[in-house]
Amino acid sequence: xxxxxxxxxxxxxxxxxxxxxxxxxxxxxxxxxxxxxxxxxxxxxxxxxxxxxxxxxxxxxxxxxxxxxxxxxxxxxxxxxxxxxxxxxxxxxxxxxxxxxxxxxxxxxxxxxxxxxxxxxxxxxxxxxxxxxxxxxxxxxxxxxxxxxxxxxxxxxxxxxxxxxxxxxxxxxxxxxxxxxxxxxxxxxxxxxxxxxxxxxxxxxxxxxxxxxxxxxxxxxxxxxxxxxxxxxxxxxxxxxxxxxxxxxxxxxxxxxxxxxxxxxxxxxxxxxxxxxxxxxxxxxxxxxxxxxxxxxxxxxxxxxxxxxxxxxxxxxxxxxxxxx
Length: 325
Description:
Elements: E1 3-6, H1 23-28, H2 34-38, E2 42-47, E3 52-58, E4 63-67, E5 91-95, H3 112-126, E6 130-135, H4 137-148, E7 153-159, H5 174-185, H6 190-198, H7 201-212, H8 221-231, H9 236-245, H10 253-258, E8 263-268, H11 276-285, E9 291-294, H12 301-304, H13 306-322
Parallel strand pairs: 1-9, 4-5, 4-6, 6-7, 7-8, 8-9
Antiparallel strand pairs: 2-3, 3-5
Helix pairs in contact: 3-4, 5-9, 6-9, 7-8
């Protein structure tokens, strides 16, 4: 990957609406994803083998789908400060994976193939090649589908792509592997374990301040509630525990090595959970894949630096339009 950096600046052509102007309304909304409805999106759903998948849609033209990552409290809401900026020129679709957000929460553990098959159903439903913007583990799901169904994918823009076990290195530290992984694997305690951690505002807030945001002061009540709402959904543990147990952690490197569609990557310059070593090794594998580092950002640049993320995605789209398809 060739590396560049994005400075903190207002994106070209960005909507005038300041995300902070909607904060009070969002806190009073029934669901954090109502933020999409406030931005003119409509809510729809499709049925997949894993369950009903809810998604938010606005705009027209070529499909552009934003996929959230996998982790306690994740949902389509994490893209609510970025995705609306593209509805003027794309058919923007932002789904909740089955088991997350407002989608159905089946009482069973969700595996890698469940996500790939659900994405396949979504892209078939859209009926045209899509630009896919994906985050963390979702990057591997999307890449796996592109190998199987290349006719469904126009291009990728990946945000911190990782499977949690890249190059054989587990993203969980020693303490987490000794405590969290065994607890998540033990049937008699795993649900209680999940509830004890991810139902607690203090735990969610603490992770966001340590790993999610560069500036802990930016972790507002709106941000914490956005994650907490999804984390507390009935049966949410069944979708979150497979990553914690290690069953959903995988090596992203082989998927990156085989990618055949135009791809670019962006990464919070100060992100530390996946880490610089993995980031740089992935970059060295594919020097034809541009890598942009977003300054003053960690694991959640789409929430902390949305204007910069919009800029980076626009630049990625411009590059891919100039590349042979």
